[in-house]
Amino acid sequence: MEVARVAGIEDAGAGDLTFVANVRYAARLATTRATAVIVGPELETPLPSLLSKNPYLTFARAVAVLHPKPRPAAGIHPTAQLGPGAVLGEGVHLGAYAVVGARVRIGARSVLHPQVVVYDDAVIGDDCELHSGVQVREACRLGQRVVIQNGAVIGSDGFGFAKDEAGRYAKIPQRGIVVIEDDVEIGALTAIDRAALRETRIGRGSKLDNLVQVGHSVTVGEDTVLAGQVGIAGSTKIGNHVTLAGQVGVAGHLSVGDGVIASAQTGIPHDVEPGTFVSGYPAIENRDWLKASAIFAKLPRLQKRVRELEAQLAELLKR
């Protein structure tokens, strides 16, 4: 069989490849018009099938093969600016009004879309893609195959101020850098602050969603996922394979261990042991939080009942 496109199971037609990653959708295999399907070995279908232990991952790879992303041609747009001593690798693309500072190094085949700004002494590795409006501040370092979505800022000043005797704030100079390791993707309008003295680091393979705030001197481990509007305060260490769901807030100067999962809107004011699933504020074990949440709605009735029992007890004591 020949397939030319990838499509969802309900929209697929002749020439399309679709997938089923969840057995709950297996019934749709009987009605899909797709030419072929990616399924797990536990599913049976009369359609031509590609068996995979991870259908969703195989589907993602099929999209990359059948719908390759267009890549801008190598070259420098006439309106782009290069600072003195900047070094560009083979096949680099600089879009319109891109600005590359002095002594910047950009690796082979990397793409800087229009209006990207890279400050002096920054380093960008091979096969990176920086979308329009991205800013990489002075001396920050990006590894290989890093993708940064529109408007993100790498290396903005950390939020550090010291108060004097009159209650006025003096800025603490932020002289550190940000290091982004290989295969990291950073979402739109995300801000990763530079350290005051050393570095803020995002580990290999980690994925940051839109509107994420990473404070100064934070370390994020490998293959960690930070969903939209996550905020991490300064000097905190996030482990490997951690998942922080949307709007999770993490206080500063603490540690979140490897494999931790925090559900949406969790507030973490203390260290979290590796492998823990936490929820709520202050963060507690997810199972305890689910029980507490179930009780929360009943609190007015429980309070009323307690008052009634207290009144009955008081009457009995009088007798």
- pLDDT averaged residue by residue: 95
Lateral strand order in the biggest sheet: 5-8-11-14-17-22-25-28-31-34-36-37
Q: Could you tell me the number of beta strands?
A: 37
Instruction: Tell me the strand percentage band.
Output: 25-35%
Low-confidence stretches: none
By secondary-structure content and strand pairing, the structural class works out as alpha/beta
Integer-rounded radius of gyration: 26 Å
Shape: flat
Helix content: 10-25%
* Main beta sheet: 12 strands, mixed
| N/C terminus separation | 89 Å
* Helix segment tally: 3
Characterization of this structure:
The protein is α/β, with parallel strands linked by helices and 319 residues long. 13% of the residues lie in helices and 28% in strands. It is built from three helices and 37 strands. It has helices at 55-66, 286-296, 299-318, and strands at 5-6, 16-19, 36-39, 49-51, 75-76, 81-82, 87-88, 93-94, 99-100, 105-106, 111-112, 117-118, 123-124, 129-130, 135-136, 141-142, 147-148, 153-156, 161-163, 169-171, 177-180, 185-186, 191-193, 199-202, 207-208, 213-214, 219-220, 225-226, 231-232, 237-238, 243-244, 249-250, 255-256, 261-262, 267-268, 277-279, 284-285. The strands form five sheets. A twelve-stranded mixed sheet has the order 5-8-11-14-17-22-25-28-31-34-36-37, covered by helices on one side. A ten-stranded parallel sheet has the order 6-9-12-15-18-23-26-29-32-35, with no helix packed on it. Strands 7-10-13-16-21-24-27-30-33 form a nine-stranded parallel sheet, with no helix packed on it. A hairpin with a 5-residue loop joins strand 19 (161-163) and strand 20 (169-171). The longest helix has 20 residues, at 299-318. It is flat. The termini are far apart.
